[in-house]
Amino acid sequence: MDIGIDKQTQRIVFVLPTFNEEDNIKNTIQQIFEQFTNLNDYICLVLVVDDNSPDETQSIVTNLIKQNKNIFLLTGPKTGLGNAYKRGFKYAIQTLEADIVFQMDSDGQHDTSLIPLFLDKIESGYDVVIGSRFTEGGSIPNFSFFRRFISRVGNFLVRYVGGVINIKDCTSGYRAIKTSYLEEVDFTFLSTAGYSFQSSLICDLVWRGAKVSEIPITFGERKAGDSKLSLNDQIEFLLNIPRLGFRNMKDFIKYSLVGLSGVFVNLGVYTLLTRYFEFSEIFAPLISIEVALISNFILNNFWTFGKRVQSSRLRLRFFKFHIASGLAALFNYLIFLILFVGFDVYDILANLIGIGIAAIANYLINSNWTWRREI
Fold it and tell me: Which range marks the domain in which residue 339 is found?
């Protein structure tokens, strides 16, 4: 399809999902184009993805298209925000040949004056730029205490379960993303249909190595109409948290296998020292434990977390790994004491439970501290 776009300029496509936005969509589109008056290195395209709104949304957009060839309308059934974005991304990439795709709400709650700042960040080398409500300088002034609390808790869960602790706002709907990264995303796996699509997408992009920047935004009031966030969206969000954790489990499985290898290294070195070199049974474990820790560190550094870009020095990671291992051992012991002494749990079972919980804690500390993802 030839849409007459200059191939020498960066093509920026704004994907705007809509449902009953007749009071907002025209102003939002106009405000977007106003930002490109002096941005001559870009072609601005707006793609409205409408879920068959029963109001005048489609009619308004159709009239705007007659006045501006860079506005496009994609319609379909109402199956959720996530599905609307999937349709929009596909059209933006395959038909509009976007270089950069913006996600933005169509209700006027996102400040369009920040668009040049988003583009500056992209031009400086970032792959994804997020308009963040939770980074320093960002705010959500019109949220009630309860809604603010729910947003914070939900964001916290995504960050830690999804392994993207460096991202302050994982659920923001205001983003700029390089198409080169969007093309890599397997949208068939991102099965979330509603608002939880936002958190699934950012986790997937970070896991693929995207360099992310966040700029503070003030999340404004809806200009008109009602919020589309439903109870089903909130339930889907909660159900999606374990799914994010499962996708992030590949590193945990590797980490567990390394830990298992450490058991054999520990036992092997201990046996070698006590049976062949006549070391004391009291002193030999100190050496065998340290050798196992060194072995585990090397395997984790170059295999488990080998694909993570790291700016910290190797010796600092080695030091952090020892601290994390010590904390996990202490945690294991405390769990054992609580269960065995406090609740009279069978000692071996108490120890096994302690080992399991400590192993998860150890992984989380090392994943989010020792080998923390750089964004």
Answer: 249-370
Same domain assignment for residues 36 and 106: yes
Provide the whole-model pTM: 0.74
The widest CA-to-CA distance across the chain, in whole angstroms, is 89
Instruction: Judge whether 16 and 46 are in contact, CB under 8 Å.
Output: yes
Do 236 and 296 belong to one domain? Answer: no
C-alpha to C-alpha distance for 236 and 119, rounded to whole angstroms? 32
| Percent of the chain's residues with pLDDT above 70 | 93
User: Strand 128-132 relative to strand 175-178: parallel, antiparallel, unpaired?
Assistant: antiparallel
Residue 89, pLDDT above cutoff 70:
yes
pLDDT tens column, 123-181: 999 999 999 999 999 999 888 888 888 889 989 999 988 888 889 999 999 999 999 99
Residue 4's pLDDT is what? 45
Three-state secondary structure call for residue 15: strand
Q: How many CB atoms lie within 10 A of CB 148?
A: 15
Indicate whether 102 and 193 sit together in one domain: yes
Residues 122 and 239 in one domain: yes
Residue 94 has pLDDT above 50, yes or no: yes
C-alpha 211/C-alpha 10 separation (Å) is: 19
Measure the CA–CA gap between 375 and 368, rounded to whole angstroms: 13
> What dihedral do alpha carbons 237, 239, 241, 246 form, nearest 10°?
-140
HSE-CB at 297 with a 13 A cutoff on CA atoms is 19
Shared domain check, 291 and 304: yes
Beta bridge partners of 177: 101, 128
Q: How many domains does the chain have?
A: 2
Alpha-carbon span 331 to 107, nearest angstrom? 48
Q: Please compute the mean of the pLDDT values over residues 222-248 and round it to a whole number.
A: 71
Q: Give the lowest-confidence range in 93-97, 112-116, 176-180, 274-278.
A: 274-278
The CATH number covering residue 153 comes to 3.90.550.10
